[in-house]
Amino acid sequence: MAADPRVPRVLILTGEPLDGPEGPASDLARGLVRAMPYAEYLWLRRWWGTSGTSAPGRAAGGRALPLVTRGRPLSRPLWAQVAAVGAAASHRVDLVHAVIPVGSGFATFSRLWPRLAARRPVLHTVPSVVDPAHLWGARPLGRTVAMSGATAQVLAAAGFGPVDVVGPVLRLGPWPPRPRARRTPPMVLALGDGGSEEALLAAGVAARAGARFQLVLVANGQGGGGHAGRPDEDALRAIAAREGLLDMEVLRRISDMPGLLAAADVLLYVPRALVGRADVPAPVLQALATGRPVILSDLPQFAALHDTVLRGPVADPHRTGHLLRELLDRPWWWEHLAERGRAVVEERFAPERAAEAYADLYRELLVGGGQGA
């Protein structure tokens, strides 16, 4: 990468261990480490137990640094542990690559980091801005990268600019294109994450307009740093009954996402806002890679998907419901969107594309030797 032929050492700094529960930041960081063969990485792992989540491991050039704190992601105890371990490790690397969302503790962390850490160049990838209010008093860690143009604008307005934009990463191997399941009725897979009620209302509109389908709702709260808690299942079933949705299943967690997408016909994800989620959540890319049309809220973070997906106005279940009905009733439209979705993921979100962009950024920072901000 740099003029020095030695492979650079890079600290991947995350607000949660990479072998811990899946989340937007840890998912992105794992993808980057696996996609970037140019560096020797140090990354954070749990001291205790196992979670079933695959960590980068030595196969990806990784060396683990243990975290002792058992706090939830983005909690103050974990922030303190990340700052301490990361600051100590920064003296042993050439570059720090932070993959940290802007959450409630970020402003304090951003002010403390320069005082604790070695003066190494920092590249900060922001998976999401949980709330723009959390940018108040925050300082750039270094060169900043956003995952969407919408988030880049928010960061630039807060004094983090100029902000680069590099899209998310999806390894295509686990998500091969799958033929449409020939099942009756078709299955609509709806993600909650702050949009459970909106999904039920849209599905109700589609059902009353004549669509016949089974609805599988993943009602797992907001996840990824949101604290709204898990939706009450009785309340969701009451809404479904009121909307005439008689064939509905509620899932609290997904144990086999590839199998669930293979069985589904459509992915429905219509939150009013993205809270603690990556700008393009992983299940959306996974569905597109599998060849499943996706219906989303028309949020600015999804603009990069262009015409790959269908987008209904935010909080407009009438329009969204009719999009769902039309999609289920038009096989030719389904086939077009399925083919287009897979092609766009291969073109824009394959690891090689992100690896090239980050390799250039690494090179600029390592050659320049500065913070890049």
UniProtKB/TrEMBL annotation:
Write the record's keywords in alphabetical order, separated by commas. Answer: Glycosyltransferase, Transferase
Q: Which Gene3D superfamilies does the UniProt record give?
A: Glycogen Phosphorylase B
What's the domain of life for this entry?
Bacteria
Q: What is this protein called?
A: D-inositol 3-phosphate glycosyltransferase
Q: Which organism is it from?
A: Streptomyces sanyensis
